[in-house]
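Quick start: read one record
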Amino acid sequence: VRMGGNNDVAAMKLAGGMYAVCNKTLAAAKRSLGMLAVYTCCNELAASGAEPVAVTISLSVPSNYSESDVRYVFMQVAKAAEKLGVDVAGVQAEVSHNVRSLLLSCCAYGLCKGKVLVSASGAKPGDSLILTKHVALEGGIIICNDFTSKAYPVLTHEGASRILERSDDMSAVKDGLTAAHAGVNAMFHAGKGGLLEAVYRM
């Protein structure tokens, strides 16, 4: 099922119904890489009206990283998947001399509740734009986790801690499925391009 170039999710008609797939590769985050991967892919599915059911993970590891670094990533993956109620259907990790930092590819699989997926570019004149999460939440968490020495003097320890406490708020699965059930014309998961990209794409 061709969704068009403006969508981050592919739909497949198979025996028994329609399924959705989303694949993302992440490298920017370090301490929150596993969590971000699961939440991001599942958010993309939900923003299309598909309920996430499983993820698979592939991790490329630089030669100077330790086993504990890899375990930390997969621990985050397992924790995020458990919170969302999705299965980790498969994981794979290998040491590569061609990468300088951890490179994680996450593929999420979902069940389509409706007959069609919600388009990212289906907004119509007169529609209301609704934002269900804080702007720049993902970026704020990455900054507070990976650039502590620069973030804390600006945000203060209390401010940075409050941002990190909202890590689980990155999940927009419930928001997306609720909106899809309500019959919205368009949805978009605001990621690295932020709110402006979301409005532009919709």
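The first strand starts at residue 10 and ends at 14.
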